[in-house]
Design a protein that fits this description.
Helix content: 25-40%
CATH architecture of one domain: Orthogonal Bundle
Strand order of the largest sheet: 5-4-8-2-1-11-13
Bound molecules: zinc ion
CATH topology of one domain: Neutral Protease, domain 2
Structural class: alpha+beta
Radius of gyration: 25 Å
Shape: globular
CATH superfamily of one domain: Neutral Protease Domain 2
CATH class of one domain: Mainly Alpha
Largest sheet: 7 strands, mixed
Number of helices: 18
Length: 632
Amino acid sequence: MKIVYTLLFTALAFINCEQAPSENTENTHTVSKEKKTEEITTKNKTEVIDEHTLSNYNEVASKHLDLDLEVNFETKSISGVVTHTIENKTNADKIVFDTKYLIIDKVLLNGSEIATYKLAPLDELLGSALEVNIKEDTKTVSIYYSTTEKTEALDWLVPSQTANKTSPFMYTQGQSIFSRSWIPLQDTPELRITYAAQIKVPKGMLAVMSANNPVQKNDEGVYKFEMTQSIPCYLLALAVGDLEFKALDDRTGVYAEPAMLESSAYELADMGKMVDAAEQLYGPYQWERFDVIVLPPSFPFGGMENPRITFATPTIIAGDRSLVSLIAHELAHSWSGNLVTNATWNDFWLNEGFTVYFERRIMEEIEGKDYADMLALLGFQDLERTLKELPPNFQKLRLNLTGFHPDDAMTDVAYEKGYFFLRLIEEKVGREKFDLFLKEYFDVHKFQTITTDQFLAYLDEKLLKPTNTKLNIDEWVNQPGLPENCPKIDAVLFDNVEKQIALYKVDYDPSVLKTDKWSTHEWLHFLRHLDNSISKDQMAELDAKFNLTNSGNSEIAAIWFEKSINVNYRGIDNALKAFLNRVGRRKFLKPLYEALAKTPEGLERGREIFKASKDNYHYVSSNTIEKILGLK
Ligand SMILES: [Zn+2]
């Protein structure tokens, strides 16, 4: 997922495989490796405790879900039945599901037998446990239910919040522990499930899921889905709207509202190459299709790696394909996260640290080392800033989230500290050995979950011991802050930007700036380094030369607007208003409203803009902005 982490700009290209060892060595090696991995996995499996589920999945586990649901836009609710096919490992007499803010109507065993059940009182963090009494011969448990207006996973958009402004829209967000609020299930990443679904939606609308998907609407408004590869249930996902599909090649395509379809297809045209390139790096893509749905502008996040269909913000549609790295990040999750999944939310860095590492390796192949170093340095700066703000307990890779919501831990620590730890290992053992290790890691653990301990045991056995590498692992994994041996990044491309800044600051003449070959990153670095002593006239001169106010690039526009507000440059006013009215992504809204709120006049302007734009924001965003503007 891309929520906190903000670096963009990755693309992918074909990457040559590192040379493999000779055939004989490889075969021998593989046999003993698999055996040992099995031992490690078995040894540690029983120790896994997920504190964020109320379910008894270790005793009796739901293995497959059949959903038969109707999406009702008038009542803003989803209702129907979920049938769980269960595996009773311990001959238990009850199965416990996670639910939150759901109405349970009835429960049937084996399709027809009325079951007795108990819905526990609500725990604000974890929800209400649903305990269903089962028997020895119970194979399936069917729960009839409906969602309520409190359901956290669902976002219901009115037509004004969409691109076409003609139809309503809804989508789900399961990660981290929200799936239980739209389906009663055993909501732990440790458990993998398959699912099938039948979804009824109003006529004229299309439903898509993290499964095989229809490519066009039908007259009945009933759509069938199947996900035959096992997934953790936070990846169960559904979106419904006036959607159309356009294929990009034989295994990639894009879903979007009609008004966004062509521009989205243009922007994401290279997705097929991205998948090919990712496969060259860490092995076959295991999910058949890779499609992206471009959600309405009020989607408050960057992206979500729902398998087979990544959910994405429309702010990446810049017109010049410069922001598609977000797609690369979500694609990388097809290996790290979706294929090999953190067993509990305490191990979240295993999902995100690997994904950031994967992203940057690909960038290096495409744009070169200097470019990738620039990304890593920006990431390092983000991490340093985050570490200054976070309490020590949240600065560790291995977290202890007892009593906390897992979303509290979705910080740069998992993403960037995780990245730098993996980069350190790469630097210690050499890239060739690290790449072979990673490729095997994904292959050996595919469609499984893994804890930090299991990963560290595997790392030691397969890489550190054989290469006689000593590492201060405990300091990295279990201690706050950044260890001394964190890799140091020297980004030469930023040296050049800094030289340009110095040159420019001599007499603030924008014509001295040589920006022809600047990527968006260099622009961001430049704009971030404009201090607040710059005058309004100097801002106007920069604007006249580079037309920054009208940048179609949301990253550049957002930082330019923020600087302009800070120095009261008013040439942006109309564009700022239009931007805040159109974009619902919290990452952009928050700093802009914060900048406005610094002066009484700005605060008033901010409130006016907010009043006119509020309907276009998801509650996640409007809730944040109301606090900034003193409206809450
Ligand atoms: Zn992610």
